[in-house]
Amino acid sequence: MQSVISVSNLSKTYASGFQALKSVDLDIRRGEIFALLGPNGAGKTTLISIICGIVNPSEGKVSIDGADIIDDYRAARSLIGLVPQELTTDAFETVWNTVTFSRGLFGKPKNPAHVEKVLRELSLWDKKDSKIMTLSGGMKRRVMIAKALSHEPQILFLDEPTAGVDVGLRKDMWNVVRALRASGVTIILTTHYIEEAEEMADRIGVINGGRIILVEGKSELMHKLGQKQLTLHLQKKLDAVPQDLAVHRLTLTNDGHDLVYSYDTQGERTGITALLGDLNKAGIRFRDLETTQSSLEDIFVGLVGQKQ
């Protein structure tokens, strides 16, 4: 699939000497939802800020649909809509005026029909004449998205888009994101809600310490790195795991009523047969068992922990 954003050997060192990005290479495909995950201070916001032309790189290149972000700044920036994490809106303006003004900032001719379409899609039409200061936090977040979409960008950056938004409104917003992707808009998001990335993203990038440590399709990532857990619900409570079972690295949970065994789904052998045999020898009986797949959060925590 064709790349719409190309990042090559990108580094950023601030005046303080802190190196926020270290030789980052990244390609974002046209029309995908790409989730960028990483702990606080990993370099997510710096990377987004450079791509969006807000921060200058120390070295490296970034092109947006073939336009260099420095040599052809206006063309590159016109293709991008940015929804920052902070709510920065003109509190005393109306929704209609602030979105219309944002469109004008990019030199776009007036297009009331497009502004109306955006406001309707974001469930803001009945608030079009309301001042920003009267809106709830969730509605203000929607206004930020409307402003970012006002100039009809091909690419939309969402930096922690649902921070502080209630669950119901969060689901509504993700429906909007799905509709945007369906219309051909490329979506790049950062989020602390890993379940959102797990549900929404086509591909996932993990950044830590200023370096991209992994970029993978979501399903491929979970298939390659995911583990399964076998939980055995015991007939009788155990006070401790018997020494004879130490080789299986079992974890005792649920106040001694459950034994949990983790195994690699990609391994040649799961070890379950041997485990069950050893449990039988030890006289440990179970009344039921179940298996669960590792979540994306489990994988993320494991990846970041390995790269410390």
Classified in CATH, the superfamily of the largest domain is: P-loop containing nucleotide triphosphate hydrolases
Architecture per CATH nomenclature, i.e. the level-2 architecture of the largest domain: 3-Layer(aba) Sandwich
Rg result: 24 Å
Total number of helices:
10
Q: Characterize the biggest β-sheet.
A: 6 strands, mixed
Task: Please estimate the helix content.
Answer: 25-40%
Alpha-beta content class: alpha/beta
| Sequence of secondary-structure elements | EEEHEEHEHHHEHEHEEHEEEHEH
Provide the low-confidence segments as ranges. Answer: none
CATH fold description of the largest domain = Rossmann fold
Q: Tell me the β content.
A: 25-35%
CA(first)-CA(last) distance: 33 Å
Quickly name the level 1 CATH class of the largest domain: Alpha Beta
The average pLDDT is 87
What does the secondary structure layout of this molecule look like, with pairings?
Elements (H helix, E strand, L loop, with lengths): L2 E11 L5 E11 L3 E5 L6 H8 L7 E6 L2 E2 L4 H6 L1 E4 L11 H11 L6 H10 L15 H13 L5 E5 L7 H16 L3 E5 L3 H7 L2 E6 L2 E7 H8 L1 E8 L16 E3 L4 E7 L7 H10 L4 E8 L2 H11 L2
Parallel strand pairs: 3-8, 3-9, 6-7, 7-8
Antiparallel strand pairs: 1-2, 1-4, 4-5, 9-10, 11-13, 11-14, 12-13
Helix pairs in contact: 3-5
Describe this structure in words.
The protein has 308 residues and is α/β, with parallel strands linked by helices. The chain has 2 domains: 3-222, P-loop containing nucleotide triphosphate hydrolases (Rossmann fold), CATH 3.40.50.300; 227-306, Alpha-Beta Plaits (2-Layer Sandwich), CATH 3.30.70. Helices cover 32% and strands 29% of the residues. It has helices spanning 44-51, 73-78, 95-105, 112-121, 137-149, 167-182, 194-200, 218-225, 272-281, 296-306, and strands at residues 3-13, 19-29, 33-37, 59-64, 67-68, 80-83, 155-159, 186-190, 203-208, 211-217, 227-234, 251-253, 258-264, 286-293. The chain has a 6-stranded mixed sheet with strand order 6-7-8-3-9-10, sandwiched between helices. The chain has a 4-stranded antiparallel sheet with strand order 2-1-4-5. Strands 12-13-11-14 form a 4-stranded antiparallel sheet. A hairpin with a 5-residue loop joins strand 1 and strand 2. Helix 3 (95-105) runs parallel beside helix 5 (137-149). The longest helix is centred in the middle third of the chain and has 16 residues, at 167-182. The two termini are 33 Å apart. The model has no long low-confidence stretch (mean pLDDT 87).
